[in-house]
Specification:
The complex is a heterodimer. Chain A is about 0% helix and about 55% strand. Chain B has no helices and eleven strands. Classes of the chains: A mainly beta, B mainly beta. Chains A and B meet through strand 3, strand 4, strand 8 and strand 9 of A and strand 5, strand 9 and strand 10 of B.
């Protein structure tokens, strides 16, 4: 499969379970933190973002948590479905005059078993 | 209708050749990007254009030359292709360059240099 040899962090869950994907970021000055989902053979797709002045933001079946003290970001997916299987990337928005420049993390492979 | 479309989807060529990848977005966005994804799935920004003006150039070799004839199009021309240029190249767009980091990605163009 596509993931062979990639050596990315992996998370395997059963359908219906909750999933938590973690990310450590590096730039304390980042203004926005974003999660993207990339399915096999497709481009990254925006899931949810959170501004640096927030700790938590909820979307449909997803919640993003931001801990600025330890520079940690997490994505929680409720009632995970097989269609959630993908590579998940966190990204930082540098802000300032570089709002359009995203710095991506390494990615986590999520596999959902029926 | 595809929001961000890039052509070709696959490109196989010999070292030393010159090739181009084209990108078009029909979202009415002002800002377009080129990102490179390597074999380890690492995504890195190469260029960004806002309303046809270059705003981000991430120390990419000058063999890579982007061109934006209008704000709906951003093409990438690569001269003297090298083995290390093999990657998936993603075009993306956003409403402005001052946003949160929500980018709309194309499906990618997989370049293989032999």
């Amino acid at each position: 499969g596509e993931s062979v040899g990639l050596h990315l962090p992996t998370l395997s869950v059963q359908e219906g379970d909750n999933s938590i994907i973690n990310c450590a970021y590096s730039n304390s000055a980042s203004d926005y933190f974003i999660w993207y989902k990339q399915e096999s053979g497709k481009g990254p797709q925006f899931i949810i973002d959170i501004r640096s002045n927030m700790d938590k933001r909820q979307g449909q079946r997803v919640t993003v948590l931001l801990n600025k003290t330890v520079k940690h970001l997490s994505l929680q997916i409720a009632a995970t479905q097989p269609g959630d299987s993908a590579v998940y990337f966190c990204a930082e928005n540098a802000g300032g005059t570089s709002y359009g420049k995203l710095t991506f993390g390494q990615g986590t492979i999520l596999t959902v078993h029926p | 209708d595809t929001a961000v479309s890039q052509t070709p989807k696959y490109l196989v060529t010999q070292m030393g050749n010159d090739k181009s990848i084209k990108c078009e977005q029909n979202l009415g966005h002002d800002t377009m990007y080129w990102y490179k994804q390597d074999s380890k799935k690492f995504l890195k920004i190469m260029f960004s254009y806002n309303n046809k003006e270059l705003i981000i150039n991430e120390t990419v070799p000058n063999r890579f030359s982007p061109k934006s004839p209008d704000k709906a199009h951003l093409n990438l021309h690569i001269n003297s292709l090298e083995l290390g240029d093999s990657a998936v190249y993603f075009c993306a767009s956003s409403q402005t360059h001052l946003g949160t980091g929500e980018l709309f990605f194309g499906e990618g163009s997989r370049l293989t240099v032999l």
